[in-house]
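Me: I keep going back and forth on a fold encoding question. No explanation is needed for now; the record alone will do.

Assistant:
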Amino acid sequence: MLLQDKRKTNPNLLSLILNTTLQVFLLLAVSFGDISCSHATEPADNEFIPSDNVTPGRRDYVWTADTIFTQNGDMLFLARIWGSSPNDIWAVGSGDSSDHLIWHFDGTKWTTDYVHRTLSSIDALFGFSANDVWIGDNEGNMWHYTGSWNRITKLAPPGFDRFVYVMDLWGTSPNDLIAAGAASRNDGYYRASLWKYSGARWDSLAIPEMKLSFSQVIVQGETGKMLLAGYCSDEPWTYYLFTRDQSGLKKLYEGSTYTQLVTLGGKVLIGMERKMYYFDGQQLKFWRDFSSIFPYNHFFARSTKDIISANPEGIIHWNGTDVKLLYKGAYNYGTAALFDKDIFILCRDTYLSTGTGYNIIIHGKLKDN
């Protein structure tokens, strides 16, 4: 049964963004008025991606919104979204029951199959094609979609008898997939956990003992090195950024600033304190300062001149020259799936006390030229 309220949105109704499991802890740092004429600080060193020939991102979107809720009104919090195309999108999360944690969009409507599975809260989602999609939950259950969903294994490292929290998935090919998160014991202790799928089974990767959880993992195509963002939830919260290759794990950052990894072609942008950095294979290098115009450290990017972020008022866009507020809204915004002409963004209307708590998936589609 499909429960979905589809509606056309206008700039005064559009809203979007701010929460994966970690992003709820981001802090608003600045306020602003008219940002349409704001400019980002120029880079301190050479552009890490040549931008002279990069076409500025367009802003002529047509927006629609789907409200997603369960047939019995059960709790549902969608946290991750991924798609192979604008007509094949998956969204997953947590809820009162395992039968409505997986949703699919076929280009027309969102549906869930209401099938009970061995699943807990889902934070990790990644795919390679329409019939090759993976999810991992916060009990170590790994499920694989190849036309139907099948449970492949339960990650369980020796000595950690409680859960493996799978926080993120990233792969370079169907036989090279990484799961990142944390393993926990019944006494409350937890440590960073990293796993690899090589086409036959999931194996634990050797890393130093660290009391933290990995929250994001990306393998940078240009260097082949893995980048890992993480955090320790002991007060005060501490955030980390690592790189990993055959020589082992190297810490790039430790501090009080949340870090976000964003893919951009074969490279990776790193957002910290609303400034953007890149990894040259050895160290972090500064690229641009968006702190005067982006109130959150939360970005999606197609190119260096097509970057989307959000603020408590709505969606904003950087085109390489200026930042413009495209749409207004007051939702909590989450992860996104980007395509050449489409963007799908998870959000939840709990920002205001009058919110329903429903999950809303905003779809922006560029007009045909």
About this structure: The CA atoms of residues 99 and 116 lie 4 Å apart. Residues 1-45 have pLDDT under 50 and may be disordered. The first strand starts at residue 4 and ends at 8. The two ends are 37 Å apart (CA to CA).
